[in-house]
């Protein structure tokens, strides 16, 4: 009995397990094919990107979890969550996998999506107004990029707490640190110096002109008396006139604004002709300071006469002084034969404000004494005399102008009398020209002025010229060219977010140079104005439109720019017959305004960890931190130490903070050794040279040459080779680097550098352009060079992604774009070779979403759908060799060979997206015939399945009658309905449909009960046209006699017998035989 019970129990368990698996399979098959929609919120602040997940058509009761990957890593998820969003993401490409679970059954959907970096870094510049009258300095923040929300001064003579306004007023002079916060809470610091302007004024350049016969217009000029002074507007002017007799007269005017360096003004006062009187001028500035001057006035009309040489002739220039135009000229006496009208056709006038010239190129003025009187419009006269004598020789003047190049210069010669010929008779041996040498072609060709001789590009030395003027006078002039020499001291004073330039420059050029600051734009490959970005045309004269002008021998303040800069000067030189412009670069420097991480060096330990050194620069002291590891929070606050020991391989975010409060983050992947490079200086024979490695004060260095390890050449990061000697200094140099202060440190490295004869021909390889689709991780730039190369060069990036570490560039940390790199191999004595590598990281197109209609039926056309990706081309592949480049292709006459998985990807700019797939099942379409039957006396249509293509009980029917009536049953009775085409659509349970039509000629299939052949058009015949398949019809009278018979009958009997005779009205019996074997009989009444 026990065994029987156990047997039953076991059987019961097996049955239970069977039903469990049956239920499991049923549940799995019942999980819905849900949809996933992922929406990205782009990164606008560091790490604030997010993804939101939405699912639809999930199975009731199922749970959904989301697994998030950052591509290309699809192994280690960032998170697994059941919430419908995830935040704290940086820009990049992500994959979301949504998994629906119910019991042990599950299915999933995935979508790739991109979070775009829309971070706009805050940038601004500061402009200010100096303190003038005390506590009236001003700083204005001009935001050029980003979204500033609050402003503060946190260091300086005066403090301003956080405020919404971008303007700070009421400041005293001094150095300030301004911090601006953006909408992400990031603070950027800039330093700015508010200077104090002196306001003391002096009076200069008094002059006057006669306004009328009774008024005079006096003009004065005030300007600051100190170099940093300004005019504090508005200024009030008070004139007080003290006439020769009578009470003083006052005039007042106000000048509200103007040039801060100089102000010109005038006032019309009474004129007391030929009398001595005065006026005082009182100037009061906006600070309330008063400055006074007194000026005497003594006006008498005068006559100035000048003799002007024209080639070898002379002219008389009559120039009245203190007169009112017009005026007339009278020659009171003149040499014999002089006729004034021959020398000026307008004589004796009137003449306007211009001078009167007496000259005739055909008739020289007679020598002798001329006495001339002028009379102005006020009737006032003036008399003067002038003596014309034979023209004496006037020796030309020679000036030396040092040239643009060291050791070269030129000569500028000016002659009052036009020069006819200039011959060089002496020159240094370095001037390669036979002497004497006619250099008359260097007479000024620009303005066609033979009074000026210009000759440049001459080597230094002694020169002599013989000059003949048009009057036949001969002159011998000598000059010495020393060659251009200059001395420049430039100190770049770095502040928090800005820099000052202390410029001191001297040279032996006679021309006053101008100095300018320019910034290099790597995208335009041009020097530009640091603020406006206007391009400076190379070789042209700099202007304030494309450069910032600097002042020599002083500190130029407040340049709140970052980048690569240069200071240039321009001055005038002399060319052959023309003036030239010299442009010389005095200094080049880089200012970032922020701390900068130059390199991160990693030294591998035996346990696989790394000792890491961060090489950074900025306003000291610097604070070093690590804030993340593989994208997750991981904090090491290292204080002022740049040494991070025992770091495991990972991607770290290193952070450096400078003394200004600026913070720089830079991500480095620590996965391999990155050791110090050895950098040579310019190695020239006989000149000082050196080899160096990065300097960390806590490290120990030991240098030796070749295999001589006992002769330590240096114990610092610098090995001096002074002087560098060939071939003695050829050889292999080694430096051992250790960390004696930390006995557990893994830093114990020997680095080698060979100075060889090959360095006379440095080889950086060939240029190359490389493009990739999507991130490639860490790229070794050496693999991007073409041809052979020497590996001891220096890599630099000109596009500033910030992720270059020696020759390793981490493309996983940059946005798609074009990046430029320069590889420089330095040889001996400044000889170098350079190659350019351009890497384009193309965007991986967004993967499309693939779909198909819910139901695909055989023998029909179905269409595949891919979501719209702008500017992309599509590629579909699928079963039965299917391939298409159409976004939404169609497949005709579907069958089971078209079943399977269809895959689509898109291509954009040569890059392929991830693929998307959809599975297609081809369902059987209903196949049927329509049967037209007459059942009883009712006409009927019905659908009959073919080959069991559908279940008649579960199918859906839709009949459409000729009049548009729709009926949804099967079969349908159409007795009495219109004749015509009847259309049936059958939809099977799998959703497939098929349609077919039948033409119905009549809808009344009953046999008439009577006929009346009287030609009235109604029941004239025994009409059986609605019956199908009639073989034979017989008509019998009531006595059983066959009176009519016809095969293939339709409607021919009209009450007549075989012989065409009318039969009597009566009831007749019919027999109708069908091709199915059926027979119908009955009675029909004949009546007329």
Report on the structure:
It is a single chain. This protein has 13 domains: 1-29; 31-115, Sandwich (Immunoglobulin-like), CATH 2.60.40; 123-194, Immunoglobulins (Immunoglobulin-like), CATH 2.60.40; 201-297, Immunoglobulin-like (Sandwich), CATH 2.60.40; 302-388, Sandwich (Immunoglobulin-like); 405-481; 486-591, Immunoglobulin-like; 594-674, Immunoglobulin-like (Sandwich); and more. 3% of the residues lie in helices and 51% in strands. The strands form 24 sheets. Strands 38, 39, 40, 42 and 43 form a 5-stranded antiparallel sheet that branches. The chain is elongated. Mean pLDDT is 88; it is low at 1-29. The chain crosses the membrane at residues 12-31.
Strands, helices and their partners?
Blueprint: H1 2-30, E1 35-41, E2 49-56, E3 63-70, E4 79-81, E5 85-89, E6 92-102, E7 105-115, E8 123-129, E9 137-145, E10 148-155, E11 160-163, E12 167-171, E13 174-182, E14 187-194, E15 201-210, E16 215-224, E17 235-242, E18 249-255, E19 263-270, E20 277-284, E21 290-297, E22 302-310, E23 313-321, E24 328-333, E25 356-358, E26 368-375, E27 381-388, E28 397-402, E29 408-414, E30 419-426, E31 437-438, E32 443-444, E33 449-459, E34 461-469, E35 474-481, E36 486-494, E37 499-507, E38 514-521, E39 526-528, E40 548-550, E41 554-559, E42 563-574, E43 579-591, E44 596-604, E45 610-617, E46 623-629, E47 632-637, E48 643-647, E49 650-657, E50 663-670, E51 679-680, E52 689-692, E53 700-705, E54 718-721, E55 731-738, E56 748-755, E57 768-773, E58 778-780, E59 794-797, E60 804-805, E61 808-810, E62 817-826, E63 832-842, E64 850-852, E65 856-857, E66 862-866, E67 873-878, E68 882-884, E69 890-891, E70 900-908, E71 911-912, E72 916-920, E73 922-923, E74 928-935, E75 938-945, E76 956-960, E77 966-967, E78 972-973, E79 980-987, ...
């Amino acid at each position: 009995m026990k065994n029987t019970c156990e047997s039953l129990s076991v059987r019961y368990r097996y049955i239970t397990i069977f039903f469990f698996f049956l239920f499991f399979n049923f549940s799995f098959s019942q999980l819905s094919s849900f949809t996933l929609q992922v929406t990205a919120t782009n990164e606008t602040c560091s790490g604030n990107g997010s993804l939101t997940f939405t699912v639809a058509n999930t199975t009731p009761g199922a749970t959904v979890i989301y697994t998030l990957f950052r591509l290309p890593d699809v192994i280690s998820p960032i998170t697994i969550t059941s919430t419908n969003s995830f935040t704290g993401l940086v820009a990049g490409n992500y994959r979301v996998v949504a998994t629906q679970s119910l019991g042990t059954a599950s299915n999933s959907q995935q979508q790739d999506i991109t979070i775009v970096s829309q971070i706009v870094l805050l940038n601004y510049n500061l402009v200010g107004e100096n303190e003038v009258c005390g506590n009236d300095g001003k700083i204005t923040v001009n935001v050029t990029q980003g979204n500033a929300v609050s402003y503060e001064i946190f260091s300086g003579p005066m403090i301003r707490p956080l405020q919404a306004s971008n303007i700070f007023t009421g400041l005293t002079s001094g150095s300030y640190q301004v911090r601006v916060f953006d909408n992400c809470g990031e603070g950027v610091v800039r330093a700015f110096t508010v200077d104090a302007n002196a306001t003391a004024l002096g009076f200069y350049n008094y002059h006057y002109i006669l306004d009328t016969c009774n008024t005079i217009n006096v003009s004065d000029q005030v300007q600051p008396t100190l170099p940093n002074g300004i005019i504090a507007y508005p200024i009030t002017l008070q004139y007080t006139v003290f006439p020769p007799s009578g009470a003083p007269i006052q005039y007042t005017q106000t000048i509200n604004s103007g040039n801060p360096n100089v102000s010109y003004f005038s006032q019309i006062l009474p004129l007391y002709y030929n009398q001595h009187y005065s006026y005082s001028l009182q100037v009061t500035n906006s600070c309330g300071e008063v400055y006074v001057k007194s000026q005497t006035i003594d006006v008498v009309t005068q006559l100035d006469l000048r003799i002007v040489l024209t080639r070898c002739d002379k002219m008389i220039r009559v120039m009245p002084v203190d007169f009112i135009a017009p005026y007339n000229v009278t020659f009171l006496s003149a040499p014999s034969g002089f006729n004034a009208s021959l020398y000026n056709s307008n004589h004796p006038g009137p003449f306007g404000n211009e001078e009167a010239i007496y000259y005739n190129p055909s008739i020289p003025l007679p020598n002798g004494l001329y006495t001339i009187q002028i009379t102005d419009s006020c009737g006032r006269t003036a008399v003067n005399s002038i003596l014309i004598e034979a023209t004496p020789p006037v020796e030309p003047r020679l000036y030396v102008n040092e040239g643009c190049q060291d050791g070269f210069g030129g000569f500028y010669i000016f002659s009052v009398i036009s020069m006819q010929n200039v011959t060089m008779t002496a020159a240094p041996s370095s001037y390669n020209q036979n002497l004497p040498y006619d250099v008359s072609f260097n007479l000024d060709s620009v303005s066609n002025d033979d009074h000026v001789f210009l000759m440049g590009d001459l080597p230094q030395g002694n020169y002599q010229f013989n000059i003949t003027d048009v009057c036949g006078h001969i002159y011998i002039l000598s000059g010495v060219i020393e060659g251009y020499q200059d001395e420049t001291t430039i100190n770049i004073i770095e502040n928090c977010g800005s820099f000052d330039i202390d410029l001191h420059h001297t040279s032996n050029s006679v021309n006053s140079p101008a100095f300018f600051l320019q910034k290099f734009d790597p995208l335009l490959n041009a020097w530009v104005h640091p603020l406006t970005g206007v391009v400076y045309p190379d070789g042209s004269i700099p202007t304030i439109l494309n450069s910032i002008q600097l002042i020599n021998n002083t500190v130029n303040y407040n340049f709140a720019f970052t980048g690569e800069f240069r200071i240039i000067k321009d001055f005038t030189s002399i060319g052959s017959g023309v003036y030239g412009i010299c442009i010389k670069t005095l200094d080049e420097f880089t200012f970032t305004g922020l701390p900068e991480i130059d390199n991160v060096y990693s030294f591998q330990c035996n346990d696989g960890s790394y000792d890491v050194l961060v090489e950074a620069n900025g306003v000291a002291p610097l604070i070093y931190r690590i804030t993340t590891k593989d994208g997750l929070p991981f904090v090491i606050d290292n204080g002022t130490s740049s040494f991070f020991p025992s770091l495991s391989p990972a991607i770290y975010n290193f952070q450096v903070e400078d003394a200004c409060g600026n913070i720089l983050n830079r991500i480095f992947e620590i996965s391999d050794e990155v050791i110090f490079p050895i950098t040579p200086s310019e190695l020239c024979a006989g000149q000082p040279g050196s080899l160096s490695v990065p300097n960390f004060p806590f490290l120990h260095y030991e240098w030796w040459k070749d295999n001589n390890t006992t002769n330590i050449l240096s114990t610092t990061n610098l090995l001096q080779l002074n002087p560098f000697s060939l071939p003695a200094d050829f050889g292999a140099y080694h430096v051992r680097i250790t960390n004696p202060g930390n006995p557990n440190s893994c830093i114990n490295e020997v680095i080698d550098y060979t100075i060889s004869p090959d360095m006379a021909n440095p080889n950086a390889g060939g240029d190359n352009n490389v493009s990739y689709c999507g991130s490639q991780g860490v790229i070794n730039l050496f693999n991007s060079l073409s041809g052979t190369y020497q590996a001891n060069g220096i890599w630099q990036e000109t596009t500033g992604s910030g992720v270059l570490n020696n020759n390793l560039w981490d493309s996983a940390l940059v946005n798609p774009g074009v990046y430029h790199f320069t590889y420089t191999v330095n040889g001996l004595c400044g000889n170098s070779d350079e190659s350019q590598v351009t890497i384009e990281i193309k965007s991986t197109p967004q993967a499309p979403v693939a779909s198909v209609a819910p139901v695909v039926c055989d023998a029909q056309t179905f269409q595949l759908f891919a979501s719209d990706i702008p500017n992309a081309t599509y590629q579909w592949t699928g079963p039965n060799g299917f391939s298409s480049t159409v976004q939404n292709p169609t497949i005709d006459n579907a069958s089971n060979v078209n079943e399977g998985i269809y895959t689509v990807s898109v291509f954009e700019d040569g890059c392929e997206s991830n693929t998307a797939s959809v599975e297609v099942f081809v369902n059987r379409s209903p196949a049927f015939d329509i049967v037209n039957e007459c059942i009883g006396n009712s006409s009927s249509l019905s659908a009959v399945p073919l080959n069991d293509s559908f279940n008649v009980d579960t199918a859906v029917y839709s009949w459409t009658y000729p009049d548009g009536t729709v009926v949804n049953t099967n079969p349908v009775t159409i007795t009495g309905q219109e004749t015509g085409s009847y259309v049936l659509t059958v939809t099977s349970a799998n959703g497939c449909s098929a349609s077919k039509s039948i033409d119905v000629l009549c809808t009344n299939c009953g046999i008439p009960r009577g006929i009346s052949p009287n030609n009235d058009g109604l029941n004239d015949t025994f009409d059986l046209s609605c019956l199908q398949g009639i073989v034979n019809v017989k008509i019998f009278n009531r006595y059983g006699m066959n009176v009519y018979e016809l095969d293939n009958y339709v409607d021919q009997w009209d009450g007549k017998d075989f012989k065409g005779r009318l039969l009597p009205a009566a009831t007749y019996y019919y027999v109708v035989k069908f091709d199915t074997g059926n027979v119908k009989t009955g009675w029909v009444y004949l009546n007329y």
